[in-house]
Amino acid sequence: GACIGCFLLAVLYEGLKIGREFLLRRNQVNVRYNSMPVPGADGTMLMETHKTVGQRMLSLSHLLQTVLHIIQVMVSYFLMLVFMTYNAYLCI
């Protein structure tokens, strides 16, 4: 039972990682392209374009990201403590 519980904790941890990444990409806002002049090799001026992506700090999606991050850190500490028991069956 403990091995199955540890396996489910590991699956939960990986699911939280994937879910947080999905939510982060889905809720990105304020995509802007910034151009700036850069001197070229032969003295000419080249334009370099950078893509900047922002995220609103005070939003429901950011709060959800924060809560999921806290849960992910707690699960990772539980998995670390299981591994520190040096029980080979649980570590595998």
TrEMBL record:
InterPro entries: Cop_transporter. Its main location: membrane. It is found in: Apical cell membrane; Basolateral cell membrane; Early endosome membrane; Late endosome membrane. Keywords: Cell membrane, Copper, Copper transport, Disulfide bond, Endosome, Ion transport, Membrane, Oxidation, Phosphoprotein, Transmembrane, Transmembrane helix, Transport. The keyword Transmembrane helix applies. It is a multi-pass membrane protein. One of its GO terms (cellular component) is late endosome membrane. The chain crosses the membrane at residues 67-89. Mobilizes copper(1+) out of the endosomal compartment, making copper(1+) available for export out of the cells. Belongs to the copper transporter (Ctr) (TC 1.A.56) family. SLC31A subfamily. This is Copper transport protein.
